[in-house]
Amino acid sequence: MKSSKLTSKVREFNRLYMPAMNLLGNHYLGSKYSVTEARVFFEIYENEGCNAAHIAKTMNIDKSYLSRIISCHEKNGYIVKKPSNADKRAYDLFLTDKGKERTLGFIQTSDREIGDILAYLSADEQKQMYTALEIIMNLLKKRVKNENSTLQS
């Protein structure tokens, strides 16, 4: 298959997927946060004690923009920064109880919205979609693994 055909199909998928899953706009799940700002909560939730460099790499986000997001979340009482034991120049990030509550709210609302969006699919169609998503994720993970092994060389 020609690469340009695949590229066009990925772009077509993105144009369909983003609005279908309510991911466009400035207010993720009706909150005051963008998708990126909300995702930072999730990254810290899933990787408690991670640092900004980890989040920047995982999300492929500009470090200056991420720093502003972290500062805002800290100011609002959602996260705390603690000096890293491994690198005195860095901070480990933790959600406060308020931050964990906000994150769990996002997860529950997102699960509910996704369930509502996909409710029209039959059980067989849901299985097909699950399998297709597994295939896509496994193919994309190859890139991440390759990048990580290149960085370690």
Write a concise keyword list for the protein shown above.
153 residues; mainly alpha; two-stranded antiparallel sheet; 6 helices; 2 strands; globular
Report the end-to-end length measured between terminal Cα atoms: 31 Å
Helix content: 55-70%
Largest sheet: 2 strands, antiparallel
Class computed from helices, strands and strand pairing: mainly alpha
Strand portion, in percent? 5-15%
Strand order of the largest sheet: 1-2
Gyration radius from CA atoms, angstroms = 18 Å
Shape: globular
Average pLDDT for all residues = 90
Total count of helical runs of at least 4 residues:
6
Using DSSP, what is the number of strands? 2
Order of helices and strands: HHHHEEHH
Unreliably modeled segments? none
Q: What topology does this entry show?
A:
Layout: H1 3-20, H2 35-46, H3 52-59, H4 63-75, E1 79-83, E2 91-95, H5 97-118, H6 123-152
Antiparallel strand pairs: 1-2
Helix pairs in contact: 2-5, 3-4
What does the model show?
This protein has 153 residues and is mostly helical. Helices cover 67% and strands 7% of the residues. The chain contains six helices and two strands. The model has no long low-confidence stretch (mean pLDDT 90).
What's the short story on this structure?
By secondary structure, the protein is mainly α. The chain has six helices and two strands; from the N terminus they run ααααββαα. The chain starts with a helix and ends with a helix.
